[in-house]
Write a structure and sequence with these properties.
The chain is of the alpha+beta class. About 30% of the residues lie in helices and about 25% in strands. This is non-specific serine/threonine protein kinase.
Length: about 650
Amino acid sequence: MTESPTDPMIGRLIDGRYQVRSRIARGGMATVYLATDLRLERRVAIKIMHGHLADDNAFRSRFIQEARSAARLAHPNVVNVFDQGQDADIAYLVMEHLPGITLRDLLKDYGRLTPEQTMDILEAVLSGLAAAHKAGIVHRDVKPENVLLADDGRIKIGDFGLARAVNNNTATGQALLGTVAYLSPELVTRGIADARSDIYALGIMTYEMLTGEQPYVGEAPMQVAYQHANDTVPMPSLVAPGVPLELDELVLWATARDPEERPRDARVMLDQLLEVEKLVRPSDTAMQATMVLPRGAAAASADAETQILGRAPLATATLAPPVAEDEEPDNVTKLAETARKRRGRGYWWFALVIFLAAAAGGAGWYFGVGPGSEIQVPSLTSASPEDASAQLEALGLVTAPGTAYSTEIEAGLVVGTDPGDGARVPKGSTVTINVSQGPQPITLPALAGLTPDAAASAITDALAVPGTVDEVFSNSVEEGLVISASRDSDGGDVSQGGDAFEGSTINYAVSLGDVTDVTGLSLDDAVDTLADQGLEGQAGEETYSETVPEGDVISAAPAGSGPIREGSVITLTVSRGPEPVEVPDVIGQAWSEAKGVLEAAGFRLDYNVTADLLPGLFTVTKVSPDVGTSAPRGSTVKVNFSA
């Protein structure tokens, strides 16, 4: 896909590290770009959430979950996730860049694949899914668009945007997430998914690789979903003669409508596939690695045999090698017996299909218009409980009250039903109407004293959303630790933990450390010191001080109220030196009286100490500085006497 010339992301530097080069693809939740990691000097794929979804807590949490789910996997058949973060108004995650095509592109170009090619791709995808299932992760969106075929021959599964933990099998309000063509029956009817739902989707994808078409089609998504819930996937060989019976059986096993009848996870299906390959794949082709040629390679050489995968040319990929003349008779007998058994099972399957078709016709009448007809539960999301009850009772169903927490549906309205919308139930069945109680209450742990990363993790683990980070100076909290935290909705303090709701945004302040003490410094030195911390020092009031020399800073304080942040103005009070006072008139006074007046004015005295022996006999005749002049408090006045 070529990028739009007006795409504002092209050329943007994200987080000071990722230089966006061009657009690769665009999906429902995000757009994927080719970018350069300037720090490690490598090309990466960067997925950026659409702007209109960035403010939606549910989508943002799902986006973060994608990064966490994929980052937990380290497997050669899973697309690596390197980084995740937020830069200004965008949320992003960084993945490895794999030049090549998707399985969907391959199917569009070549239609159906050979059994050998199908098994190559299926083995790689199952290996990656097995690692995910072992880590407790369900992919939830297995489809050809998410299988990447790299130019160097690697096959990887990616896009864990809908992934969830295996034990989290409830999807209230989100039952139809994923592509409808690959939805398992339990997702359609009950909104429940586990590892076996991935197996079902992979079975549908295998059918599509072998036949070149999907088993179910319809004019509307609900028609396709209905077929998934009510029909049985046919054998691929009915559409593509020549598909081995073993692959027919593998597809039927993976797409069983009852999850209990499918492989329990990808590891089990992979083990069975390896057994099938021993029977189906010619032994002399088993050693060659799978390789996918870039799109357009066939057109570039019109006279050459077209080759998609490295096993063999497309025209001869299904041909078995000739049997060697010296092959042991026992092996020949075994091969003949295996072929006979396949034909016998093929006839049995054909008879079974005819029987099932007849039975389905009778069952269709019985359950469609006959006495066993069932009722489809309608979608009642966001309806009032009264309206929901009326609709269900009008259909002949019994209602029961229920409750559920929801971050999306307003309290007092219907979140969903049990059984869920789309489920078919007999008349008179009880349907529970789950009414929203609003977001689920949660309890946040203590956040004060944590690092920002630890605080963000604690907030996310509690099902809340990390909000803005305010960096402020603090003389009591160590640099780099959280000072306080509050709920975005009402400003309530949750620094030492507290109550909130699922999806709440939690803002927190982080300490920048102490503001350097600049008292006693010269004004210029104080301004320079504060500038080193990102603060602006400004000269303020000048006042007298008997302890701080003239021109030095007496005190520093923020210009306004509130926290001190980078860029804040600090007002500096500057000393004018000691306050000047007027020399009192003590001329003609006896020393016993004049001495006390001069000392009370704050002066030091320089005089003949003999006058202190008989102060009543000595009279002041002169003072310097002269009477009436001003001199700094604490300065020296010289006194002359007469006896």
